[in-house]
Amino acid sequence: MMKATSFALALSLSLLGLGGAYTVQKGDTLYSLARANNLKVEDLRRLNNLSSDALAVGQVLRLSAGEARPPAANTATPSPIKPNPVPPKSVASSAATKPLPAPSGFTLTPPTSTPRTPTTSTPTPAPPKAVSAAPESPPKPPVTVPITVRTGSRFEVGGVGVTLPEQLGMGDAFSVRLTGPGAQSAAVRFPSELGEDVRQPGETLTPSGAAGVYVVPGRVVLGKTTPVIVEIAVGGEVVRGIIPLRPKPGGPVVKLHLSPTVAAKLTDPGKAAEDALVNKAYLNRGQPVWTRPFAAAVPNPPIPGSFGQSRTYTSGSPVAYHYGADYPAKLGTPIHAVNDGTVVIAGTYPVRGGLVMIDHGGGVSSLYFHQSRILVKVGQAVKRGDVIGQVGTTGLSEGPHLHLEIRVRGEATQPADWINRLWP
Ligand SMILES: [Zn+2]
Asked: Is the pTM of this model over 0.70?
């Protein structure tokens, strides 16, 4: 274990070695540069002592090992932190460099698992004797599906009404609302979700709902600054909608100075297994099980601005987003489930401390960190308001508080936005 750890450490140190310099071009972001150079954004921030994610044209950045590649070299490389099981598709890749407007008339390779792939476009005359002439038949040409780009927050796709938010901000959860006959069979993707900083990009999602109203929950990934692009396919029609983003509020990096004993948890040998367990649970995709608005987990208000804050935990440590909201409360304060769901994690871990994770279905989960006592078990069904544990200061914590996360397909969203709303 120690050997593996020091190897990983040596590897990451070599990644941080001196590399070429790159002059920032128009349109570059920290994320596009990190992606193009197979780096983590944190590495770029650290290499260049950046206290903000804003880049200026002409600014010279140090990049790591080897040649400096501009972001246009569209080579999405799987990140060592968040490997993407779904490789970006060709349409998604073209959206990386030119997020809007997308040209119509894309050439799409027909998805193998989507039932609504037009079958009329493969007019292979079936010879009477050949049952399955796979080796003999010529390779099928890619099907050209016109993609229409719509502006505005309301439009139609194949007779299905679509309602999108008019504007979003980093860390927002939202819903793509589909109405009318056929809404249930729509397929929804977010082609703007690209890169190492996105969990499960390129996923094709099916809406859930009833009585003619169907929704797909969305999330604005922390660190993303480009508009959210929603692609909706109904029947043979594919339409893209564009949701503009509010400028990032951009607070300063908050420098925490954790005590050595607490900071040591960041390098705990058990951290990798802990992260793997949680990452796996982010993949749950059941039907949404909640029917009532989300409720507060503790009565106290959170520390303002604690969600999405850029932080360093020790002097010189990389800048990381804070994915939850912190609710200071007395030791032993009961913690309530924010909504109905199933307990998928309940235990004590090095960083998150006493942790409960509830899967609410629909790709939505809530996580409760640093508990002193856990009162539920894995597999247990909970109802909104059920007491699941008590506030503590276990794991990476220096005082009693609840760290609450509400995630959509693994990406952190602002917890306060969920409370008291029937969502999405
Ligand atoms: Zn926290």
From this structure: no
Instruction: Say if residue 103's pLDDT is above 50.
Output: no
Peptide bond into 115 cis (omega under 30): no
Q: Is residue 398 part of a domain?
A: yes
| Angle made by CA atoms 271, 273, 276, in degrees to the nearest 5 | 110
The CA 403 to ligand 1 mean position distance, Å, reads: 4
Q: What residue type is assigned to position 213 of the chain?
A: V
- What protein residues have CB closer than 5 angstroms to ion ligand 1? 324, 326, 403
What spacing in Å lies between the alpha carbon of 375 and ligand 1's midpoint? Answer: 21
Q: How far is the CA of 322 from the centre of ligand 1 (A)?
A: 6
Nearest-angstrom CA–CA distance, 106 and 179:
26
**Residue 396 Cα, ligand 1 centroid: separation in angstroms?**
8
**How many angstroms separate the CA atoms of 61 and 76, rounded?**
20
Report the CATH number at residue 396. 2.70.70.10
Domain C-terminal end among 188, 215, 243: 243
Domain of 12 in residue numbering reads as 7-62
* Whether residues 212 and 294 fall in one domain: no
Q: Where are the alpha helices (DSSP H) in 16-118?
A: 30-36, 41-47, 90-97
CATH number, residue 99: 2.60.40
- pLDDT digit string (tens) for 257-292? 888 888 888 889 999 999 999 999 999 999 999 999
pLDDT tens digits along 228-246:
999 999 988 999 999 999 8
Domain assignment present for residue 32? The answer is: yes
Residue 195, in any domain of the structure: yes
Gap from CA of 198 to ligand 1 centroid (Å) = 20
- Residues of the chain above pLDDT 90, percent: 49
Distance 308 CA to ligand 1 centre (A): 10
Count of structural domains, the chain: 3
